[in-house]
Amino acid sequence: MDWLQEQGRNVRGLPPTNILFLQEVTHSTIDTLRSYKTYTIVGTAGRGTAMVTRNEINLTNITRLPSERGIAAEYRGIWLANVYAPPGTAKRQERERFYNSELPYLLRASPSNMIVGGDFNCVLRQTALQL
Q: Is residue 15 in some structural domain?
């Protein structure tokens, strides 16, 4: 997190980081970053997601998936969604449930403008689909 704090200081003339999407978040102690707010969903499975924003950015309508695999919020009419999909080696049913039920639930309230980011763990080989 030192890198994030350095970015917040406008290093080498670069603009500060405004919004970050994080995956595989294992605990919610990232809320101690100076000049930043964190929005997390981390449970017992330890595969949570988070959005980190500069203090002056206020997110509204925050939605969290019970599976800890996604968080979404609105900022100035733009729906921001951060997801962490089950990996390719996970059971097929878990991936199907995520893409067919959980992701549509997370995106249901989105206005016409949307940014979706995260770790989609795409399946690149047919053999991974059969696990």
A: no
Structural contact between residues 48 and 68, judged by C-beta atoms closer than 8 angstroms: yes
Please give the helix or strand (H or E) that residue 113 lies within, else none.
strand 113-119
11, part of any domain? no
Rounded to whole angstroms, the Cα distance separating 38 from 29 reads: 9
User: By residue range, what is the domain housing residue 50?
Assistant: 20-129
Tell me the per-residue pLDDT of 22-70, one tens digit each, with 9 for 90 and over.
888 877 666 667 788 888 888 776 678 889 899 999 999 999 998 889 9
pTM of the model: 0.78
Q: Say if 6 falls within a structural domain.
A: no
Number of other residues whose CB lies within 10 A of the CB of residue 30: 18
- Domain count along the chain: 1
